[in-house]
Structure to design on (655 residues):
């Protein structure tokens, strides 16, 4: 598929319709072309901006009235003139009562709100966010320092209540096209305006479109306009609760505090992924805006864990409109890097496509055991395997492969395994594998 | 090797998540189902369609009581005439058409043809469990979205409304409008492209 065809058909992707041949081609093109990925991303944003956070919906009274009338027709049959009369009576009388009750309730709620906020008029959360968005549209740059309970070299989404805080730093320049960098000790992502480059230290890289998901949950912070879109969308789709208060800050200035109470997203029949990412946790996100400038000043994320609330992410410093050293938007990579790539179909692709998750996990470990690196590469999509990898997994022994399971929002499977390494250590863990790639083959995605 | 919980080293993973289907789009099985016959099945029909049909009728009529009136009437008729409709292949497009016709009748009765969203007041939006602040925000948002949509050709705007407010799929929009999916796709595409330009221009002007 070329860019012209993509631009003609890409709206079909917005629908998530069944797997058509065209959809597969569109997805493949989206992954390989940055210009089109940007077009797609912008379109999604435009749609998100139109998406209302509050919807017109049928009230429960309306549904009840419909079902009551239906029950009556079922019992007594339908006589058009009478049914219509019934409809009117049923409709208007309760509607009037409901309207009165609603008005009284409305008055009480406003009154209470008024009292709680010490005479301040009630605020719409969305008005506040819209104002923040407006403030951001005049910005030239943002520089954020934060800390997160995670592992230094693991992906940017991983969190753990027991992990230590790892420093994070983010820069964004609102140029055209925008450029940004996100960094923690073991990982860096740089988006230079054309593409995103992920460097997993010391020697692995992956290249992606400007919208590639390398930084996961941190992404909206880089795009302050997206905080509005994404919190709005989440409130609507996932039922997170939004509230807003006014507080006096340490500097004596008035702050607007936006609190989001969110529920863990995903299926936790197996709770392996529960509380492993912010999205997969029950959490509270507290955004703090300066009431004067409407700029974001802070964010804290607490996970509601069994033992109580744990702070897992915190913005420690935000600076706006400072000059950013242009060299931050490029990476000096070591010579011997290997790169991750999307898998391409093999001549005998079908054989791999038809594997069950545990078969794929076994085949991967067996290939490592046999030091058959060509075979390993069919399950691990890098340009070549580095010596570290070979030393670590070469000649292993499979002790057991367990029953695969799904957890949280992860699109692939987790396969429990136990192996004995050449070093003599045994390792018992869950291998993450997924096949939602153009070649539809199982790829090892983590858990090694 | 460092221990990795589950990494997303290659971008496909998260981009696939980006491609994931929005949760609230109209489910195809409910849309493509035949005409329900029992009151139990009708309850499912009401659950699947009532919100969307309310939103559709509200956009046509501009006030909640009339929209509720129309939606209730359509469901009741759909039940009363269930045996005549037994051969209807797909219930979704048919229900939309019934509501569409009922709205036209209603407007004719009141001799109003175009509803201006500027006239929508916050207290006309159903409150349910919503707070007054949320209701006001909903009215405000609707007005803002409608302002943008008004600058588009009507056919493109209608496709976007059916997609954004009623959350219908392209094929379902095609059913409602009685045109091909390709026509719907191109109206959506051109409409969104224009909107993107307008939004960008607004942003630059405010700079």
């Amino acid at each position: 598929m070329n860019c012209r065809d993509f631009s003609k058909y890409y709206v079909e992707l917005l629908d998530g319709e069944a797997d058509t041949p065209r959809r597969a081609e569109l997805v493949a093109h989206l992954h390989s072309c940055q210009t089109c990925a940007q077009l797609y991303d912008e379109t999604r944003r435009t749609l998100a901006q139109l998406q209302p956070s509050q919807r017109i919906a049928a009230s429960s009274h309306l549904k009840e009235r419909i079902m009551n009338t239906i029950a009556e027709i079922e019992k007594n049959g339908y006589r058009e003139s009478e049914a219509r009369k019934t409809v009117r009576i049923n409709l208007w009388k309760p509607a009037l009562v409901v309207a009165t009750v609603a008005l009284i309730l409305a008055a009480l709620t406003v009154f209470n709100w008024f009292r709680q906020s010490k005479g301040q008029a009630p605020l719409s959360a969305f008005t506040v966010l819209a104002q923040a968005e407006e403030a951001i549209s005049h910005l030239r740059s943002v520089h954020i320092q934060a800390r997160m309970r995670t592992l230094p070299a693991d992906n940017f989404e991983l969190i753990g209540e027991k992990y230590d805080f790892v420093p994070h730093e983010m820069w964004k320049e609102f140029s055209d096209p925008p450029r940004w960098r996100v960094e923690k000790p073991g990982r860096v992502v740089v988006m230079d305006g054309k593409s995103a480059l992920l460097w997993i230290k010391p020697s692995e890289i992956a290249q992606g479109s400007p919208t590639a998901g390398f930084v996961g949950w941190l992404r909206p912070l880089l795009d302050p306009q997206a905080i509005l879109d994404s919190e709005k969308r989440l409130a609507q789709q996932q039922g997170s609760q939004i509230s807003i208060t006014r507080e006096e800050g340490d500097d004596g200035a008035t702050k607007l505090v936006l609190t989001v109470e969110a529920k863990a997203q995903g299926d936790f029949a197996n709770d392996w992924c529960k509380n492993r990412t912010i999205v997969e946790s029950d959490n509270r996100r507290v955004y703090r805006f300066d009431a004067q400038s409407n700029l974001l000043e802070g964010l804290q994320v607490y996970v509601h864990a069994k033992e109580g609330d744990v702070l897992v992410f915190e913005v420690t410093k935000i600076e706006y409109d400072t000059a950013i050293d242009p060299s931050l938007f490029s990476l000096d990579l070591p010579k011997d890097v290997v790169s991750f790539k999307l898998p391409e179909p093999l001549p005998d692709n079908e054989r791999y496509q038809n594997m069950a998750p545990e078969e794929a996990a076994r085949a991967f470990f067996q290939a490592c055991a046999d030091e058959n690196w060509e075979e390993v590469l069919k399950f691990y999509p890098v340009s070549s395997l580095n010596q570290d990898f070979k030393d670590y997994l070469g000649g292993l022994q499979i002790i057991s492969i367990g029953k695969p399971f799904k957890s949280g929002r992860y699109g692939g499977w987790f396969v429990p395994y136990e192996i004995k390494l050449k070093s003599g250590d045994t390792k018992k863990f869950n291998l993450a594998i997924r096949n939602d790639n153009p070649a539809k083959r199982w790829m090892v995605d983590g858990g090694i | 090797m460092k221990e990795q919980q589950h990494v997303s080293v290659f971008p496909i993973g998260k981009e696939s998540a980006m491609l994931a289907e929005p949760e609230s789009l109209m489910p195809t099985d409910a849309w493509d189902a035949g005409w329900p016959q029992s009151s139990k099945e009708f309850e499912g029909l009401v659950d699947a369609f009532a919100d969307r049909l309310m939103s559709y009728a509200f956009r046509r009529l501009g006030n909640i009581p009339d929209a509720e009136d129309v939606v209730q009437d359509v469901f009741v008729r759909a039940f009363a005439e269930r045996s005549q409709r037994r051969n209807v292949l797909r219930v979704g497009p048919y229900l939309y058409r019934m509501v569409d016709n009922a709205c036209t009748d209603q407007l004719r009765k009141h001799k109003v043809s175009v509803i201006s969203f500027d006239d929508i007041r916050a207290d006309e939006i159903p409150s349910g469990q919503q707070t007054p602040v949320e209701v006001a925000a909903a009215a405000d948002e609707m007005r803002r979205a409608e302002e943008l949509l008004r600058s588009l050709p009507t056919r493109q705007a209608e496709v976007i409304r059916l997609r954004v407010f009623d959350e219908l799929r392209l094929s379902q929009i095609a059913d409602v409008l009685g045109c091909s999916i390709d026509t719907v796709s191109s109206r959506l595409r051109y409409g969104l492209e224009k909107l993107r330009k307008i939004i960008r221009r607004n942003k630059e002007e405010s700079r």
Notes: Chain B touches chain A through 86 residues (CB under 8 Å).
